[in-house]
Amino acid sequence: MLQELADRTAIVDAVIAYATALDTRDWETLGGLFTGDARWEYSGSGERLCGPDAIIARIRTSLERFDATHHLNGNHVVTVHGDEAEHTCYYQAQHVRLGLPDGEKFLGGGRYDDRLRRTPDGWRFAHRRITGVWSEGNPAVITS
């Protein structure tokens, strides 16, 4: 029971580290959170990537155009099966681009569905699926 609690805490810590790395633009830390064969997909867009380098390149290209982002996670559900785990949580992601005429903010909410693997360096994402559920604000913040 104690090991399961420690694993659950470490998995949620990895999820929080992901959000923090996004907002601080810490690409090295972000890349280190994935297994070498990790997969990443954005549900609804059909976009699927394999490997930390491709995943980080895509995320970096997307986020570097913003003046700021702020990712929050909640409602974590973790199931551990030995050295494999499943995790789901909700997210809210604020995106800011200053100077846009119709508004500088775009807020999106959705869900992360993850599979993680225990490695010698701790729990790492083997697969992350992002599903957007709702949004509000100026879509030009994220599209232009």
In short, what is this structure?
This protein has 144 residues and is of the alpha+beta class.
Walk me through what this model shows.
Helix content is 31%, strand content 49%. With 144 residues, it is an alpha+beta fold. The protein has a single domain, classed as Nuclear Transport Factor 2, Chain: A, CATH 3.10.450.50. A six-stranded mixed β-sheet has the order 2-1-6-5-4-3. It is globular.
Q: So what's the overall shape?
A: globular
Largest sheet strand order: 2-1-6-5-4-3
Number of helices: 4
- For this structure, what is the CATH class? Alpha Beta
Structural class comes to alpha+beta
Low-confidence stretches: none
**What is the correct CATH architecture?**
Roll
Q: What is the radius of gyration computed over CA atoms, rounded to a whole number of angstroms?
A: 15 Å
How would you spell out the order of helices and strands?
Answer: HHEEHEEEEH
What helical percentage do the residues reach? Answer: 25-40%
Question: What is the makeup of the main sheet?
Answer: 6 strands, mixed
Task: Write the topology of this structure.
Blueprint: H1 2-24, H2 27-31, E1 34-42, E2 47-50, H3 52-63, E3 68-81, E4 84-96, E5 105-119, E6 122-137, H4 140-143
Parallel strand pairs: 1-6
Antiparallel strand pairs: 1-2, 3-4, 4-5, 5-6
